[in-house]
Amino acid sequence: MKYVLLLILLTLAGCAEGHPREPSVYERADEVSFRLEQDSGVICSGWAIGHHAIVTDEHCIEGGVKGWRIDGRRVRVSQVLKDGNDHVILITDLYFRQVAKLGPVPQRGDEVFTLGNPDGQSDILLRGHVAGFKGTYVVEGWGKFYDITLIDSNDWKGCSGAAVFDSQGRVIGVVNAIWPFPNRGWKLAAAFGLRFTPDQYTIATNAGPQENWVVSE
Questions:
Q1: Are 104 and 172 in contact (CB under 8 A)?
Q2: pLDDT in tens, 138-151
Q3: Is 118 found in the same domain as 85?
């Protein structure tokens, strides 16, 4: 009998080794989140929406798309898709193994988190809740933006473009700014609504290797 029990235990151990644990929601989010850094020193965040497409904030690339690295890798861009609400999709020559999923419209009080690069740090996990909503947000010298979700997380410069994930790891927004601005001793992260068209989403999700580049290193 002892030999039978030993055989069963060895079999169970083999099964355990053959079935590694499922990655956590934070690990899955990390697989689709990236650090964007330009030669000029500008640091932003971004997330994969397609295997060759990454989302970030339009104000991050106001100096152009040349001289950028994504997680340390030089990137070439073939197309820039804008939603008119401070977001862009960059069609790139890099391959992103995992792609983020979009989630439903958030509700006040929902738990959320971001993985960004505040103040130049890398892959910092910041947690919070949906604190409220604003229809518009006017930033002097910058413009007027729409469909604002306010998050009580400690996002800061370098987090621009970071995905706001819900508790299941789905993207429900993108960090764009700090509210109020200028800072008054307290702040919330402001995520402007994604306004890409269905055609733009189709281009992003179906994009493959490109031949015509906006920039070539």
A1: yes
A2: 887 889 999 999 99
A3: no
